[in-house]
Design goal:
Blueprint lengths: L2 E8 L3 H12 L5 E5 L4 E8 L2 E8 L5 H9 L2 E8 L3 H10 L10 E3 L3 E6 L8 E7 L1
Parallel strand pairs: 1-4, 5-8
Antiparallel strand pairs: 1-5, 2-3, 3-4, 6-7, 7-8
């Protein structure tokens, strides 16, 4: 794993959260994107060498809506940049990590993504990211 790619933060109201992070980071998001397959709309901010991804549900059955209902707003996941996501998935599975995705899928911000189950990483949802 090369570096922390981004930290995902689940929010109820994307516009309010964007205003907060614009003040905090003193810049506007560089990209908003809807990921229909996940029922989420995202907004990305640069934060030094890493990024902040705000995630808001587009429907009440989406994973983000369920997360917020159960845990409230806050850190949803931490994403790591990897050179070869398919290789990394195999290596982590061999090491005993529980995978949510055994194959990479297209995610936000022009990335291939795969997730490790929080039970495998001390309660933290881990996302692997590779540029498409």
């Amino acid at each position: 794993m090369k570096k922390i790619e981004h930290i995902g933060i689940a929010v109820k109201n994307l516009e309010e959260a964007k205003a907060t992070y614009e003040l905090l980071l003193d810049e506007k998001p560089y990209k908003d994107e809807t990921v229909t397959s996940e029922g989420v709309i995202t907004s990305f901010f640069k934060a030094g060498e890493s990024k902040i991804e705000l995630l808001a549900a587009t429907n009440p059955d989406s994973p983000i809506a369920k997360f917020i209902e159960k845990r409230g707003e806050g850190i949803h996941h931490i994403a790591f940049n990897v050179a070869d996501i398919e290789k990394e998935i195999k290596v982590l599975e061999e090491k005993g990590f529980q995978l949510i995705n055994k194959k990479a899928k297209k995610g936000a911000d022009n990335k291939w993504v795969a997730f490790l189950h929080p039970k495998s990483a001390n309660g933290v949802l881990v996302e692997l990211c590779q540029d498409v």
